[in-house]
Amino acid sequence: MAASHTMPDDFQRFQQAFTAHIRDPKRHPRPAGVPARRMRVYNELLLNNLDGFLLACFPVLRQVLGTRKWNRLVREFFAEHACQTPIFRQIPEEFVQYLQQAREPHENDPPWLPHLAHYEWIELVLSVSPLDMHDIHANPEGDLMTGHPCLNPVLAVCRYPYAVHRIGPKNKAGVPQETIILAVRDQEDIVRFIEINPITARLVDLLKSGELTGTAALAQIAAELQHTNTEVVIQGGIAILDQLRAAQIILGTVQ
User: Is-contact 172 64, C-beta < 8 A?
Assistant: First the structure.
């Protein structure tokens, strides 16, 4: 009986040593009895697979960081983060969570690192969303002021302390600037990004319930702003509503 208990324990210890070495070969030695060449195949295969999943979602982040910093970041994520999902396309979400919540920033990290990652990840979220604007029955020509504007269900309003949409290989500094980005998937299944101001963001938020007319939503915004002339806000809001409809953020009015 003793042998039957010992063998599984030994095997589990071997598995733990094996996976620990794959995750972080510099900190955890190669398990005894495993040829170095074969172990290197496992190390490279799994890390390269992970790198491929992440690179598909974060191409700008990879370009801006450069090869050396990107590889180090992927290695840190592989070594330190225990993914909670077996679904490959959800790995980028775990990566964003790791950057936002778990990883201790390094001295030479760009301060916008987790924000740019989130901005790129949102495109994947909307691309694979099971929601579909074609399932919404709205009157595309409806009066947005007297009717109840109907929002595209595949959208996200994201707030960042940096102008993340302007960061790229030729602009790596990142401008500290409160930025609101509205991402939406259009009728061609293309995810588009639009920079909006706080008033537009509040208007979109108020319209989510589908319970307010355009006029009522704009009047509420005027009240929240403590504006002395509600009609001025409402008249200015008409153009915003029209712009949102043209961008397929508003699909029309509720039928």
Answer: yes
Task: Yes or no: say if 115 and 161 are a contact pair by the CB < 8 Å rule.
Answer: yes
What does the pLDDT look like over 208-241, one tens digit per residue?
A: 999 999 999 999 999 999 999 999 999 999 999 9
- pTM for the structure as a whole: 0.84
d(CA 128, CA 232): 40
For residue 152, the model assigns a pLDDT of 98
In sequence order, the 6+-apart residues with CB closer than 8 A to the CB of 116 are 60, 61, 64, 162, 164, 167, 174
DSSP annotation string for 98-165? IIIIIPPPPTTS-TTHHHHHHHHHHHHHHHT-S--GGG--EETT--TTTS-EEE-SSEEEEEEEE-GG
Element (H, E) at 213: none
- CA dist list (Å): 138 to 122, 128, 178: 26, 23, 33
Exposure b/e, 232-242, CB count within 10 A at least 16 = b: ebbeebeebbe
- Residues in the chain, overall count: 255
Rounded Cα distance, 223 and 225, in Å: 5
